[in-house]
Design brief:
The structure is a homodimer of 397-residue chains.
Chain A lengths: L1 E5 L6 H10 L3 E6 L2 H9 L10 H12 L3 E5 L6 H11 L3 E4 L6 H4 L3 H25 L4 E7 L17 E8 L2 E8 L7 H20 L3 E6 L1 E3 L25 H11 L3 E4 L5 E6 H13 L9 E5 L2 E4 H12 L3 E4 L16 H5 L7 H14 L29
Parallel strand pairs in A: 1-2, 1-4, 2-3, 4-5, 5-8, 8-12, 9-11, 10-14
Antiparallel strand pairs in A: 6-7, 11-13
């Protein structure tokens, strides 16, 4: 299969590109290197050392003999080049990771709110327009987020995979209707993914574009079999308060002797997935696209759910690290349960990596090995959801 | 009240500006004159002669002694100037009409699809960001569309004003939930208004921004008492296949002896409102904003519903004009019923202008008077929803 990976230089995109290349697909990475520019802006770096993209693909070819092409293109602002690329390259599918993906970054300032909306909405809409304009039958696989659903909305009913059946009262009795699950995003970032959903629904209906939307949980872990082949292929590990995800942050904090930072009560229950399973899910989704004219195909891309404080306590016991309960800079429920339907990927053969399998490896191979690269001033989350909300000072110098 | 009218040079914005100025409010029009540029692009003009904006406001002052300020600003791309304007002007409210509003124009080409999404989403999001950044308690009144709901979704249940109560099946029995009515937009334009809804919901929740969203039907009529004071204050009357709305197009067609163009079976039922009622609704909405922290306040801004072919038959009989049934360039249901809840404005004192009151005035004062300005080559709708859909040739030279 000929596949374009939009955002293929990022945390999920890079290991996906390698995984699909290893599996024999013809892979082109399309990326404007925005994630590297944001590192510069935030004055932070991945815990793991990331090589330039041309070196990355050269090392991959050196080890495997497989070529991955790289095209520097800004999806949100270079529409005509995108159309030309589709028409010339005639991909079978496009995997769309090319969105600003950090909730805290999306709430930092008016500038980052506006950047996130502009980049994500324009990027997704440009892709849809370009696929229609190309006249080609290109399947789209998009990385969504569990955050589109919000938390705790449907009581004891598990969150379905995209679509919810409801009963609508009418003068002639109740009418059963399937609806896109009502959205309740918790940040500007999550909001953009709810906008994406409406873009996809319209283009699927009006133009028969084939779209798969993957509502992913919080990704943890770093390496896949392919990124582990050579240190120059290593994947990102973000630990800072904006881009770091909670479980990886705990692993890093334990490695450097920083208290585990729980914001709020830690009663938030979230869905998780290992990066190794992310890349497998993308491959499964590519192999199972909807037909033209069908509604958007939605998968919940999650494997386990945990309460944040339970995760903190687990890592704390394993590593003998204290826990610091800090003010919550986000506006969210202090405590929630989470019951997520995740049948579709399991039915298609996904064998999940569980926390018990992956955790020690992460702690030793990544946390301990790269601990000296940590900047202590970047650990405590400082981005607040409303002006004036309380933040913690740094806990270590 | 100090009010900014974004898009105050357009078909709804201009009469609203005059109406609010006449009512004693301090009015500033903010507009980038985009509607005039699109006339140039489409090589068409309003049936009524529209004067330059500075002449319009000068004539208004000449007649009434009231000043309306005009600021040329692109809401979607001049964010910093917008923030400065809010901070300097400290408006009590902003009325947001500044969106590309023609469904056919939004479907013409990749360029107009992208322009519509960029202009409408960036404009709305910039406004929300700027209100938050200003730190001021500015109420927003936004012009939405009935088209966010789609047609025929809820069987015999009337379309509610924004929010729908549904029953969600759970293992512990049904859970009653109020949700934003599921959206089913029929064009890229309508889709942008469904995106707007999600932007408003997030900023109302996260930042306590006070937003009223008005889901308006198809506007007909031209004049309000204020625009009728002097011909140089006259409102737009768009008759072309992209910007003309169905009832005004029938009136114009009858005036020039062109067959009344019904696309498809004419079985589409739509909601209507006279422009005189639009401006009153805006005034009512400004006087009844939600409190900070409340959900977005939604009104259905419609007064009557009609089936398109019934309207055509009515005008046909009144004016002895034939009806031409042409291919439908839109993707929509051939026939639908429409039952709309419209209690909120009535409860707040709106006294609707009915078709029977306004129709003869339009036919004589506008259709007949300006008939010589019609360009026959612009009448038949030519914009299609998918490449290759059938269109009718022009019916008159």
């Amino acid at each position: 299969m000929n596949v374009l990976i939009l955002g293929g230089d990022g945390f999920c995109g890079w290991p996906t590109a390698l995984h699909l290349s290893q599996a024999g697909h013809d892979v082109t990475i399309v990326d404007n290197l925005s994630r590297r520019f944001i590192d510069v802006e935030l004055e932070v770096e991945s815990l793991t050392p990331i090589r330039p993209i041309h070196e990355r693909v050269a090392v991959w070819e050196e080890h495997t003999g497989k070529q991955i092409r790289f095209i520097n293109l800004d999806l949100a602002h270079e529409y005509d080049r995108l159309v030309t690329l589709l028409v010339d390259d005639r991909p079978d599918a496009v995997v769309h990771f090319a969105e600003q993906r950090a909730a805290p970054y999306s709430m930092r300032s008016a500038a980052t709110k506006r950047y996130t909306v502009d980049n994500n909405v324009s990027g997704t809409h440009n892709l849809l327009c370009a696929v229609v304009e190309s006249g080609l039958d290109i399947a789209i696989v998009h990385l969504g987020t569990m955050g589109v659903y919000g938390y705790g909305w449907s009581g004891s009913a598990p969150i379905p995979e995209g679509y919810l059946t409801v009963n609508v009262p009418t003068p002639d009795g109740e009418l059963e209707r399937e609806i896109l699950h009502p959205s309740n995003p918790g940040s500007v970032y999550h909001m953009t993914k709810t906008l994406d959903q409406l873009l996809f629904a319209f283009y699927a209906k009006n133009d028969g574009v084939r779209v798969t939307d993957l509502h992913q949980g919080i990704v943890w872990g770093t390496q896949t079999p392919e990124t582990a082949i050579d240190e120059r292929l290593i994947n990102r590990f973000d630990y800072d308060g904006d881009y770091g995800t909670v479980l990886n942050r705990f692993i890093m904090q334990a490695a450097v002797g920083h208290p585990l930072t729980v914001h709020g009560t830690g009663g938030q229950t979230r869905a998780f997935i290992h990066i190794r399973d992310t890349v497998r899910c993308i491959e499964i989704a590519l192999s199972n696209p909807p037909a033209s004219g069908e509604q958007v195909s939605v998968f919940n891309q999650v494997t386990e759910t945990y309460r944040v404080r339970d995760l903190a306590e687990l890592i704390s016991e394993l590593t003998d690290t204290e826990i610091a309960y800090l003010p919550n800079p986000r506006k969210e429920a202090a405590e929630n349960d989470l019951n997520v339907t995740r049948d579709r990927f399991l039915a298609l053969g996904l064998r999940p990596t569980t926390l018990s399998e992956g955790l020690l490896e992460e702690t030793h191979e990544i946390g301990a090995k790269y601990a000296t690269r940590v900047d202590m001033s970047k650990i405590v989350a400082k981005t607040v959801w409303n002006a004036g909300m309380e933040v913690s000072p740094d806990l270590r110098r």
